[in-house]
Design a protein that fits this description.
0% strand; mainly alpha; 472 residues
């Protein structure tokens, strides 16, 4: 079930009404209602794959109980390893097996060994990377002693499957979200309206910003051979706004939906395109994932508590794994590797240890934005060949972008949406004024909401386009 679908716009209010009709003191009854709603939400894509979600939930639940029960460290570690192996094996089978089999087979044929490796026609379960990492984070937290094992299975199952953030995050930590399922959440008008405002703004950046940019971006990147360098450049400048609007929009809707019900999810984006270094960009972009890799990959490798060369190695490995997490494609591998190398260079040069102001800040921002946009080409290209074609076309082929009359209208609307989003975020970044959405005036707040809804209806792409991160 997509957030930007009629089905969800009917589903969500019904869930909210039923949730608040159950007395706040009946916490477990409310949780059971949300659990059933979450599985219904997920099964709207492929009902059979709810079994994978349930399997991951059962494995990590039982592993955590084992870790809590066994007194010796050896058996605790065995439970954790079992949880990691089983969950990552499922993730590997559905997401990476065919990619690895294809590349190994191609290598063997190139070396004269004619071995055919079987492939499976498996559909990638939506959100598998997100809920797997959330469940594994819980197992690791219990092993480290950072959180207590949850003994009530429906409560833990809801933590893994909570529908607002189930398929594309934020990837929540057990110590933040799990205790909230044991609290009494009473209806609060201000909290509900704050959640609604977040949701509406999320719909704006998804339907007006992301999907308008996406019309041109998808046309170019899905038909690389039919366009020139000017078109590649324009599409490459629009894609950063498309993916930001798409993913930040999803996160805002998820955080807003949870807020309506009384739950608080972690911030996932913090104005990332205002970053002045690549390191700062990753403190602002997909925060739940970047902190997950920091806590469960980078720090266990040694983090920055080791020598300089080993620290660079740890950074590079973390970002290579991050790239591969996004998809089974060499483009994602290179995208992650490039970001890792850029961070190593910044560390080696000591960039980012001081605050930038004035013209120096502008220069650092411009370089960072250019590097991030360049890396996004690898992320968006369907193949490595397409990425090379786009990069070489930008630098070697002159020409104006290919823009039809119909496409020109879409580009104008996309430009206006970019301007609106940038203006709002500049006001927040530089503290220019009080936000309209937070104005003490009831009339101002609701006028803002009505205006946003009108813009979505008039200028949004209402075709129900899927969110980009669903493929991960």
């Amino acid at each position: 079930m997509l957030f930007n679908s009629i089905a969800f716009l009917l589903f969500f209010p019904i869930v909210c009404v039923l949730f608040f009709c159950v007395p706040a003191s009946q916490v477990r009854a409310r949780n059971l209602l949300l659990l059933l709603a979450s599985y219904y939400f997920y099964m709207n894509w492929q009902p059979a794959y709810a079994l994978l979600l349930l399997t991951s939930t059962l494995v990590t639940y039982l592993a955590a109980l084992g870790i809590a029960r066994f007194p010796d460290r050896g058996r605790k570690k065995a439970c954790l390893v079992g949880s990691l192996v089983l969950n990552l094996a499922i993730l590997f089978l559905f997401k990476y097996y065919n990619f690895l089999a294809t590349n190994v087979e191609a290598f063997l044929h190139a070396t004269g060994t004619g071995i055919d490796i079987p492939e499976f026609g498996l559909l990638l379960p939506v959100g598998i990377s997100f809920y797997t990492f959330q469940a594994l984070g819980y197992s690791i937290d219990v092993y480290r002693g950072d959180t207590q094992a949850e003994r009530h299975f429906p409560t833990y199952a809801l933590f893994v499957s909570f529908f607002p953030q189930l398929v594309a995050g934020p990837i929540e930590r057990s110590r933040n979200l799990l205790p909230q399922f044991k609290q009494q959440h009473r209806f609060d008008y201000e909290s509900v309206m704050a959640g609604v405002r977040l949701m509406v703004w999320g719909y704006f950046v998804k339907l007006v910003l992301a999907d308008r940019c996406g019309i041109y971006v998808d046309t170019i990147f899905n038909n690389i051979d039919k366009h020139n360098g000017g078109s590649y450049l324009l599409a490459s400048l629009l894609f950063p706004f498309q993916i930001y609007g798409d993913f930040a929009g999803y996160s805002l809707i998820a955080i807003g939906a949870a807020r309506v019900l009384g739950f608080r999810l972690m911030e996932n984006f913090h104005r990332p395109y205002f970053a002045c270094t690549v390191g700062e960009f990753w403190h602002r972009w997909h925060i739940s994932l970047s902190t997950w890799f920091k806590d469960y990959v980078y720090i266990p490798l040694g983090g920055n508590r080791v020598g300089r060369l080993r620290n660079y190695f740890n950074l590079l490995v973390t970002f290579v794994v991050s790239g591969i997490w996004h998809g089974a494609n060499w483009t994602f591998f290179l995208w992650g590797t490039l970001h890792g190398l850029l961070l190593c260079i910044e560390k080696a040069l000591g960039i980012g240890k001081q605050r930038f102001t004035g013209f120096r800040r502008f220069c650092h921002w411009a370089v960072t934005f250019a590097l991030v946009c360049f890396a996004w080409i690898l992320f968006r290209a369907n193949t490595l060949h397409d990425a090379i074609t786009v990069v070489s076309g930008i630098f070697c082929q002159a020409g104006l972008p290919d823009v039809s009359f119909a496409m020109f209208t879409d580009l104008c609307l996309a430009a206006l949406a970019i301007g609106v989003v940038l203006l709002k975020e500049m006001a927040e970044e530089f503290h220019w004024s009080v936000q309209v959405a937070e104005s003490p005036s009831w009339l101002v707040r609701h006028s803002y909401l009505v205006l946003l809804i009108a813009c979505i209806i008039l200028f949004g792409v209402l075709g129900g386009d899927q969110f980009i991160y669903f493929q991960f």
